[in-house]
UniProtKB/TrEMBL annotation:
Belongs to the carbon-nitrogen hydrolase superfamily. Nitrilase family. CDD domains: nitrilases_CHs (cd07564). It catalyses: 3-cyano-L-alanine + 2 H2O = L-aspartate + NH4(+). It comes from Xanthoceras sorbifolium. SUPFAM superfamilies: Carbon-nitrogen hydrolase. Residues 25-297 form the CN hydrolase domain. InterPro entries: C-N_Hydrolase, C-N_Hydrolase_sf, Nitrilase/CN_hydratase_CS, Nitrilases_CHs. Its EC number is 3.5.5.4. This is cyanoalanine nitrilase.
Length: 345
């Protein structure tokens, strides 16, 4: 595993003007690939990376979108309008088998890792809820407690074929000893109303696990840091063709003939940005890496003095947002509870 962290992680060299009265948090974003179709091995890899980050003093570690369960890049699951193929259905069965239940044994293992290495952990997973899958982020504190989850509200393009839609009940911001932490996944970061809801919850460390390695992603991350007056931590996988099963077991639709085992299919670009828009670490496009920075939380107040999007820079008498934060249930049972045996009332 060619981690840049083997020679030491990439730390910020930016002087943020920190002072002793404001706490500092050492944060790491992990840029590494899933071991596709092998959830147990992926969890083993996650623990190795977590241990390495903790060894450098990291208090918060953020993993990429769909790290556990895998991001099925290039696969179309045999879908066209009005038709599905048997091979595509079998691909979904295998993908479903690689997902995890929340709660479940894999969640317990992740919680154990967070407690063992004394880090707050933000982990991208594919969540299995019956026979529906969700692209989800799980949160754990440094005591090994599972805090909760965020389900991706809006899967993009063909993602909608394989993933369900989150609802307003899983847009948490958790108050922790190292700051208020939440997450939005990949292109839902481009949804301004979702961002506004998170700002209203007071987010300070905004995690953005993604699968987007394009240069324009960096502009979105910088904008969110400035808009929200928060630290933005974006983690993406770095993957080569050989990190996925070989054909015919797994095929990159439309591009397979142009790929060799060492071809890069996701180039990373993981980055950490301050509330002033300063790039603290990254973006990295060179390979698997641990990308780290020290976050001066005093920078949040300094940034919000200029611009507080849900505070002094808001105009609620003109513009307002309603968030329906209850679970959207497809079936609700309203039958009255059974009377206790022997009751005559």
């Amino acid at each position: 595993m060619a981690l840049l962290a083997a020679e030491g992680p990439l730390f910020a060299e930016v002087d943020m003007g920190a002072d002793s009265s404001a706490p500092t948090v050492r944060a790491t974003v992990v840029q590494a690939s899933t071991i596709f179709y092998d959830t147990s091995a992926t969890l083993d890899k996650a623990e190795r990376l977590l241990a390495e980050a903790a060894g450098y003093g990291s208090q918060l570690v953020v993993f990429p979108e769909a790290f556990v369960g895998g991001y099925p890049r290039g696969s179309n699951f045999g879908v066209s309008i009005g038709a599905r193929t048997p091979k595509g259905k079998e691909e979904f069965r295998k993908y479903h088998a690689s997902a995890i239940d929340v709660p479940g044994p894999e969640v317990e293992r992740l919680a154990g890792m967070a407690g063992k290495y004394k880090v707050h952990l933000v982990m991208g997973v594919i969540e299995r809820d019956g026979y529906t899958l969700y692209c989800t982020v799980l949160f754990f504190d440094s005591q090994g407690r599972y805090l909760g989850k965020h389900r991706k509200l809006m899967p993009t393009a063909l993602e909608r074929i394989i993933w369900g839609f989150g609802d307003g009940s899983t847009i948490p911001v958790f108050e922790t000893p190292i700051g208020k932490i939440g997450a939005a996944i990949c292109w839902e970061n481009r949804m301004p109303l979702l961002r506004t809801a998170m700002y209203a919850k007071g987010i300070e460390i905004y995690c953005a696990p993604t699968a987007d390695a394009r240069d324009v992603w960096q502009a979105s991350m910088t904008h969110i840091a400035l808009e929200g007056g928060c630290f933005v931590l974006s983690a993406n996988q770095f993957c080569r063709r050989k990190d996925y099963p070989p054909p015919p077991d797994y095929v990159f639709s439309g591009t397979e003939e142009d790929l060799n085992p060492d071809s890069v299919v996701c180039a990373g670009g993981s980055v950490i940005i301050s509330p002033s828009g300063t790039v603290l670490a990254g973006p990295n496009f060179d390979g698997e890496a641990l990308i780290s920075a020290d976050l001066d939380l005093g920078e949040i107040a300094r940034a919000k003095f200029d611009f507080d999007v849900v505070g002094h820079y808001s105009r609620p008498e003109v513009l307002s947002l309603i968030v329906r934060d209850h679970p959207a249930m497809p079936v609700t049972f309203t039958s009255a509870p059974l009377k206790p045996e022997g009751s005559h009332k």
